[in-house]
């Protein structure tokens, strides 16, 4: 699942961006109950990529939201990247909740005129059959997105089993996504699944892309309006040679459900 949670803020209309905009900078008693709902939703999945988290600051009540959601969803592993650390006032982050233990986690700063965008790259299993998951939240500028996806394409060029997901801020038929797919062989199984705004979805800007080696069983958008985005979900069968924990031979035969 990929979900932009808007720092745990539930938004139902455009005007709430203004009337409730203070919740982006100050704590709000309704935030934790909404986060618990998101955590309960996440329980049904093995890998959950989250955008627009806060890693613990004034606005979140000094709650590390990735850790909170990992506990609420009963996830044994979670990984986080803080892209814009603004001290006690805000800790802009994204994170991955996982039922699989990662072998390697790397953080990358993405190019762009305005700093603060990153890619979280998480490796599961052992080479050469490892699964590489890249979590993104791209810029608003098309030029910056093209540059950022060119960087991502370089990072995953040598990997066979790849999932790239997140808030791309562009639709599935955009030049940026067409470029990424042409360069890497990644594919989006279903086009035009709108996720934004959550109360009347019209734009498909959240995506899960997979390499040809991964078999996609289903993809859908959930009717879970806990943010200004809806969550994108996908069921993927991993290759039989994939061993999520590089453990005994019987683990290599497992077919974990992910994303």
Task: For this entry, give a set of tags.
five-stranded mixed β-sheet; four-stranded mixed β-sheet; 12 strands; 259 residues; 5 helices; globular; alpha+beta; 19% helix; Deoxyribonuclease I, Chain A; disordered C terminus
Describe the protein's architecture and organization.
With 259 residues, the protein is an alpha+beta fold. It has one domain: Endonuclease/exonuclease/phosphatase (Deoxyribonuclease I, Chain A). 19% of the residues lie in helices and 29% in strands. Strands 5-6-7-8-9 form a five-stranded mixed β-sheet, with no helix packed on it. Strands 1-2-4-3 form a four-stranded mixed β-sheet. β6 and β7 form a beta hairpin. The protein is globular, with a radius of gyration of 17 Å.
């Amino acid at each position: 699942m990929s979900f932009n949670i808007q720092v745990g803020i539930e938004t139902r209309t455009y005007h709430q961006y203004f009337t409730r905009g203070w919740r982006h900078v100050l704590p709000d008693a309704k935030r934790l109950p909404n986060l618990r709902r998101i955590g309960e939703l996440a329980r049904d999945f093995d890998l959950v990529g989250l955008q627009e988290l806060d890693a613990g600051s004034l606005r979140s009540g000094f709650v590390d939201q990735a850790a909170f959601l990992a506990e609420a969803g009963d996830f044994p592993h979670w990984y986080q990247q803080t892209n814009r650390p603004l001290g006690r006032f805000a800790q802009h982050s994204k994170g991955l909740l996982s039922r699989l233990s990662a072998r390697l986690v790397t953080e990358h700063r993405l190019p762009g005129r305005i700093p603060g965008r990153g890619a979280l790259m998480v490796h599961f299993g052992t080479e050469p059959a490892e699964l590489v998951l890249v979590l993104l939240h791209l810029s608003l500028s098309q030029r910056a997105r093209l540059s950022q996806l060119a960087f991502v394409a370089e990072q995953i060029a040598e990997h066979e089993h790849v999932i790239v997901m997140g808030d791309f801020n562009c639709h599935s038929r955009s030049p940026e996504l067409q470029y990424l797919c042409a360069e890497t062989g990644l594919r989006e199984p279903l086009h035009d699944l709108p996720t934004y705004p959550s109360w009347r979805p019209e734009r498909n800007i959240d995506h899960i892309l997979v390499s040809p080696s991964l078999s996609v069983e289903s993809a859908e958008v959930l009717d879970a309006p806990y943010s200004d985005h809806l969550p994108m979900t996908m069921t993927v069968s991993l290759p039989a040679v994939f061993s999520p924990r590089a453990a005994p031979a019987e683990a290599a035969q497992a077919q974990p459900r992910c994303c």
